[in-house]
Design brief:
globular; 2 domains
Amino acid sequence: MSEPTHWPRHIGYALMALEIDPFAADTYIAGFIQRWGAFDHSALERAFSQGAEDDRLFAINGLGHLGTPEAHALLLPALQSPHPQERWDSAVCLANLGDVQALPVLCSMLTDYLPTRLDDYLQNLSVFEIRRSDAVDPLAGLGDRRAVPCLRGALRQVVELLSQGTTFAEAEGVLLAQLPAQRADFSRSALQHLRDALQPGRRRYLGADG
């Protein structure tokens, strides 16, 4: 999905993060304004504090892209939210702001709710599978070597799930084939990061020996 050009950048980012269809964006924003009076920083704060799930997720992503100190402070408690999507989105936003406090949640994103059977994975491609790879680039961007073991462990679990007696390349193809077309390029990039993390001596990856 391309970023809508007629909204402020933080709103366009939030629309993309929630994968709201561009044709439905105007309707969603109109409803958000009706509920919260605007879509500025103050309205996003109110939606985050008082809103239903969709509005809270929209607010998390909008505030995260604004990146103000006030937004940063609001997002930190969401790392402990009982709602996994709130934890995940907050972690991605905070990592993009350079906050290493997001690292544990990003690491858990790689394997949380990962099925143990390939049939379950392929037949029930949930929002968690679609969003799982969103953790990889923020993890790499943090530049914290503590991310390397969790990336390695996650790759092993995913390959074990997908392989089923086949090669890694074939398993990768299975994964990419199950993702919507607009996510395939990003997912291929995520898998490359994971492969890099597995290779000993790749000092360029997160500045670690591996």
